[in-house]
TrEMBL record, chain A:
Residues 4-74 form the Ferrous iron transporter FeoA-like domain. Gene3D superfamilies: 2.30.30.90. Keywords: Iron. It comes from Methanocalculus taiwanensis. SUPFAM superfamilies: C-terminal domain of transcriptional repressors. This is Ferrous iron transport protein A. PANTHER family: FEOA FAMILY PROTEIN (PTHR43151), SSR2333 PROTEIN (PTHR43151:SF1). The lineage of its organism: Archaea, Methanobacteriati, Methanobacteriota, Stenosarchaea group, Methanomicrobia. InterPro entries: Fe-transptr_FeoA-like, FeoA-like, FeoA_core_dom, Transcriptional_repressor_C.
From TrEMBL, chain B:
GO terms for cellular component: plasma membrane. It comes from Methanocalculus taiwanensis. Mg(2+) 1 binds at residue 22. PANTHER family: FE(2+) TRANSPORTER FEOB, FERROUS IRON TRANSPORT PROTEIN B. This is Ferrous iron transport protein B. NCBIfam families: feoB. Mg(2+) 2 binds at residues 23, 25-26. Residues 4-166 form the FeoB-type G domain. The chain crosses the membrane at residues 283-301, 307-327, 339-363, 383-405, 417-444, 450-469, 507-528, 564-585, 605-627, 639-663. It holds the Pfam family FeoB_C.
Automatic annotation (TrEMBL), chain C:
The chain crosses the membrane at residues 12-33, 45-63, 75-98, 118-136. It comes from the Archaea. Keywords: Membrane, Transmembrane, Transmembrane helix. It comes from Methanocalculus taiwanensis. This is Uncharacterized protein.
């Protein structure tokens, strides 16, 4: 499936990160948290302006602006 | 002679680091500040097997880049203070992310011990961890610990002593691949030419950080004699690409280590995930949050009641004893009116503040507070602030001092500055006595609604000011935020109590120090020049009041209120006690209420104006001090005073005239 | 089987909370309804709101479970948790009030005062407690201890 920004995924979807298009500081920060290319993320909730994702067992809240910068290839949901 | 070993305790946030620290050092802790910055520095000491171990609790960080002040502090401490041993507390249920920091620590060259915490949780979930194998792969000792029960901590201390005795540097680091390694070794060779750098820093680490574009490291190199050579070498490559590559390699190394040392069971949706679905639900999230907040305030005020009554009783009794037993009239007045009256009036609110902080600690410990910030993010975004700013706002209802200190978790400087500047408008516990007095006297049955209205006004002013600052002096978008949502936990009473004590004691110190001095000044100004009647128009206090009367008369107020407001700058509670002095009535007694009601200069509209003014006019001395400390300059502290005064005057003026119009009696 | 019990419990308790909460809001407008007084319901906007929120949380659980969505149990547990928390808040508040009266104001606590203190958020929390005893352990085992 084609890649799209993390912020556009619906709750419950899982996907692989294909790229992080952020400035230097922000990207380093995202990397330290485990949001790196090839990592698998799951969107837990996205009811609000920001979304909660879970990546390698941790949950983070990302604002939508931040989530726009993380590009993801969603897995075809086997839900 | 006893040996002393210095240990730096580091780790990701929310891995139980503080619990480990508390269990090791017990009560022998010292809380201070890191030099130059305002992040709390905690050190503690412990004696074990004839060795004295000095533990420094570094701020919790995910990595050792220079993204936040915390990270800079943590790594500077390890590099510059040269602790004998670095202990990283690792959440065993979350190894992958935790080991990222381990990889970076390894490059700093100090001996590292991994304290594998929360193994019980991981194994309860079905994971297995072979710490011997992990230790071989990482080339550093790995010790299992359970911070809460203290299990494994003896082993940890023994390992610390053993590692310190060897005193070897840690040399095992991961490889970044041929191309990057070639670059690193080039840089190391260049850097080695500057003796200042080669003596003080691990060169490999400097090289790696320089490649990753670390601003602090680049600034350091900039100043060295080899700056030109380093720049030239760095210009040959595409830094962006390398930075991602290095992070990838670290995870690759972790990815290679983990399967050899542990097996992870497949994660299903955890309890935390499920709770998150409920409390951040589109429709239920905010109502649940509001309900909990209401509960928190209900609890704060209701449960504090017997304690407050007890403290009032004790101070009342003390006052009587002093009045009865001290013959010297001057001394009796100083102790009775000045010290006991002033400090006692403030101490009454200690239970309120402690209970509020206890509740906030429980909410924080359970993991809910992070969700609250998340829920409020949308709303905060409209104001132009990140969701994280919400927690300091909430704490401001207790006391602005710890609230402003808690803004440290906000990374963006402008966001943080705005959050600090609007915090004094959040009505803290100290302002409540003023409301209770005036609303109680002038509004009787409606007092509750009036007080609620004041709290609401404070919030509205804070929001509008934030918006205003965002549009004018501190422009910019609120920065996009990432926040860890820690797993829900069942908070322990002990940790909640410790946390409460830490924050509450700031208030106690304020009550003990500043307010005592403030009360004495009030007493002095009200009793001199010698011979005047206490608190009369002829006293210094009266003179000051008359001087300022033209300023407050448009608000429907007279000189007595003006004096009380001036004194209220020391601490807003003092407004009440100084009115007691000026009206010559014991505070808290019906006499002061009667005196206020009988004063022809005060009307209902005037009372409203006083309350609005007290709510907004300026941060108290303690808050001002904290603003100065946290923003690093008197400029912003001064700005906050000036801005507050202007806003307060305008709104009090409007309130007075509107209220006079609607309520009739001016 | 057990899921079905949870669903029924969530629906039943949620409905009770919702009814009582709405009643507390109605009592704000219409004073002196005898039936309400019998159940200790008085007009209180904040408390009414809280009761409604707890009721809605539980009922959301009921609907999710009836759609066979397993995660619906989270609504049940959060609902039970909220019910217990607010029962406890009331209990502590009343206890503190009685303590102040008895110790510092020398008043006696009469049976009448105790009867007045028995309000919905207290007795409904007792029902919620049964739910907690039945399923709480299994759920909280999945959470971390600090």
């Amino acid at each position: 499936m084609a890649s799209c920004p993390l912020s556009l995924l619906s709750a419950g979807t899982t996907g692989k990160i294909t790229g992080v298009h952020a400035g230097e500081g922000l990207r380093r920060r995202l990397y330290a948290l485990g949001l790196i290319p090839e990592a698998t993320v799951t969107v837990v909730t996205r009811d609000r302006g920001s979304i909660i994702v879970s990546v390698c067992g941790c949950r983070y809240a990302l604002s939508r602006g931040m989530a726009m910068k993380v590009i993801i290839a969603p897995e075809v949901a086997a839900r | 002679m006893k040996k002393t070993i210095s240990v730096a305790l580091t780790g990701n946030p929310n891995v139980g680091k503080t619990t480990v620290f508390n269990t090791i050092t017990g009560s022998r802790q010292h809380v201070g500040n890191w030099p130059g910055v305002t992040v709390e520095k905690k050190t503690g000491r412990c004696e074990y097997a004839d060795t004295s171990i000095e533990v420094t609790d570094l701020p919790g960080t995910y990595s050792l880049t220079a993204y936040s002040a915390d990270e800079v502090i943590a790594r500077n401490f390890i590099i510059e203070d040269n602790p004998d041993v670095v202990v990283q507390v690792v959440d065993a249920s979350n190894l992958e992310r935790n080991l990222y920091l381990t990889m970076q620590l390894a490059e700093l060259g100090r001996p590292v011990i991994v304290a594998l915490n929360m193994v019980d949780v991981a194994e309860g979930r079905g994971d297995t961890i072979d710490e011997k194998r992990l230790s071989e792969l990482l080339a550093m000792p790995v010790v299992r610990t359970v911070g809460t029960s203290g299990r494994g901590l003896d082993r940890l201390l023994e390992t610390i002593i053993a590692v310190a005795a060897k005193g070897e540097k840690h040399t095992h680091t991961i490889g970044y691949g041929d191309e990057a390694e070639a670059l690193i070794s080039d840089l190391v060779r260049i850097l080695d030419d500057d003796p200042a750098l080669a003596g003080g820093y691990p060169l490999r680490w400097l090289a790696v950080r320089a490649i990753e574009g670390d601003s602090a490291v680049l600034a350091l190199i900039e100043k060295s004699s080899v700056a030109g050579a380093v720049q030239a070498r760095l210009q040959q490559i595409d830094l962006d690409e390398y930075e991602a590559l290095l992070a990838d390699k670290r995870y690759e190394a972790i990815g290679a280590i983990l399967p050899q040392a542990c097996t992870m069971c497949v994660r299903k949706m955890t309890g935390s995930d499920m709770i998150d679905r409920v409390v951040t639900n589109k429709y239920l999230g905010i109502p649940i949050f509001l309900a909990l907040m209401w509960g928190a305030f209900q609890l704060t005020f209701a449960v504090a009641e017997p304690f407050m009554a007890g403290i009032e009783y004790v101070f009342g009794w003390l006052g009587e004893v002093v009045a009865g037993s001290i013959g010297n009239e001057w001394l009796a007045s100083l102790l009775g009116d000045g010290v006991i009256g002033g400090v006692g009036g403030v101490f009454v609110f200690v239970p309120n503040i402690f209970i509020l902080f206890l509740i906030l600690s429980i909410l924080e410990g359970s993991g809910y507070l992070a969700r609250a910030a998340f829920i409020m993010d949308r709303l905060m975004y409209v104001i132009g602030l990140p969701g994280k700013s919400f927690i300091p706002m909430l704490m401001g209802f207790g006391c602005n001092v710890p609230a402003i200190m808690s803004t440290r978790t906000i990374e963006d400087d402008r966001d943080r500055l705005i959050t600090i500047l609007v915090n004094p408008f959040i009505s803290c516990g100290a302002r409540l006595p003023v409301y209770i007095l005036f609303a109680g006297v002038f509004f009787g049955r409606d007092a509750g609604n009036v007080i609620f209205g004041l709290y609401a006004l404070g919030i509205v002013v804070a929001i509008l000011s934030a918006k205003l600052f965002r549009c004018t002096i501190l422009p910019g978008e609120s920065s996009p935020f990432i926040m860890e949502m820690p797993p829900y936990r069942i908070p322990t009473i002990k940790n909640a109590m410790l946390n409460m004590w830490e924050k509450g004691s700031m208030y106690l110190k304020k009550a003990g120090g500043i307010i005592l001095i403030g009360s004495l000044i009030v007493w002095f100004l009200a009793s001199y020049p010698a011979g005047v009647e206490y608190g009369s128009e002829e006293s210094f206090a009266g003179m000051i009041g008359h001087l300022l009367e033209p300023l407050v008369s448009p608000l429907g107020l007279d000189w007595k209120i003006a004096v009380a407001l001036i004194f209220g700058f020391v601490a807003k509670e003092i407004v009440v006690s100084s009115l007691g002095v000026l009206y010559g009535a014991d505070e808290g007694s019906a006499a002061l209420s009667d005196a206020l009601l009988a004063d022809p200069a005060l009307s209902m509209a005037g009372a409203l104006a006083v309350m609005v003014f007290v709510l907004l006019y300026m941060p108290c001395v303690a808050t001002l001090g904290v603003i100065k400390k946290e923003t690093g300059s008197w400029r912003w502290a001064g700005f906050s005073v000036l801005y507050g005064l202007v806003v307060a005057w305008i709104l009090a003026f409007a309130t007075f005239h509107l209220a006079s119009y609607f309520l009739g009696g001016a | 089987m057990s899921e079905y019990h949870k669903q029924l419990f969530a629906g039943f308790l949620g409905l009770l909370y919702l009814i009582v909460g709405v009643a507390a809001l109605i009592a704000l407008v219409v004073p002196d309804i005898k039936l309400f007084e019998l159940f200790g319901i008085s007009g209180d906007p904040a408390m009414g709101f809280v009761l409604v929120v707890i009721g809605l949380t539980l009922i959301s659980g009921f609907f999710e479970l009836s759609k066979k969505i397993h995660e619906g149990v989270a609504y049940l547990h959060v609902g039970i948790g909220l019910a217990l928390v607010f029962g406890m808040i009331w209990f502590l508040s009343v206890g503190a009030e009685f303590a102040t009266l008895a110790i510092f104001e020398g008043e006696e606590i009469t049976l009448e005062m105790i009867r007045e203190a028995i309000v919905p958020q207290l007795y409904l929390a007792v029902i919620a407690l049964f739910g907690f005893i039945a399923w709480g352990k299994e759920f909280s085992a999945g959470l971390l201890r600090d």
